[in-house]
Predict the 3D structure of the following.
Amino acid sequence: MSTSTAGGGGKPSRSSSAIIADTASGYHILRIDGYSGTKGTPTGEFHKSRTFTVGGHSWFILYYPNGASPAEETPLASEEVTTFRSHSSSGYAEFSKREDLEKSEHLKDDSFAIRCDIVIINNVYAKEIDEEAATPAFVSVSPLDLSAHFGDLLLTENGADVVFEVGSQTFAAHRCVLAARSPVFKAELFGTRKESVTTGIVRIDDIEAQVFKALLYFIYTDSLPKAKKEEGEEEEDDVMSQHLLVAADKYNLERLKLIYEDKLCKYIDVSTVATILALAEQHHCNGLKKACFDFLSSPTNLKAAVDTDGFKHLSRSCPAIMEDLIVMLGNLVL
């Protein structure tokens, strides 16, 4: 650190600065389906992921089932990236021992996934900090708690003026809150369709009770209900996500729809891709549809998916999707 001095008394000058790293980040998930079939890959040979982009740079992952050299045959190879030059690569021979992987919960139905997180430091620079902002605070302001208050309002039912009958359950709510959050509820409760709810009781027949309960929770708190996930509930969570996406689309809750569109992208596999693709087409979920097509761009995934009953039903019920899929496959060949 260099310094300089200046004469004179009086109040000392004060200033603050910060060292800031300008970064770009992203991640790629590589699924290894049919793990047992890769165990026969000769030492030194690898399987390459599709190229992906993070921070304006192209990346790919090399998976060596039996290591890059004879000394590395036991572990599965990969490593966190540290420093790179253009066209260089890095790896770690002892990323995971085969026996540890095969005993772990990560290997399921002969499949596992690897997530590669990448952080790129583009520039490091100094920035002056506003002195007023840098002054120690003597008063601690509590965080926002509006959503908690509205959540309590839903829970206590204080002031509720409408009741929804869903299956065998009833849910009390507040017309103004629902109308402020959903244009569909606004039309039903205050607009052209309000005549049907003058009694204060609304019957919902096309949504399950647990789905409607989660929908109300999001409307009041702008967050998802916290569920205690038991072992083996992943498939159930997948189905619940599909129902909530449909409900969000029905009531024009765009943020909730995007949340579950994103969640469903993580559930795409051979057994679910047909159902999820049909859902994406029916409810205009472009991102989810692209994720399904990306999964099907793998010849292995496509062949396995085409043999499922769900895909056969998809080809009959949504011929437009099949046309889009044919165009996508044609572009890949070109």
User: Anything to note?
Assistant: Residues 77-81 have pLDDT under 50 and may be disordered. Residues 234-250 form the longest helix (17 residues).
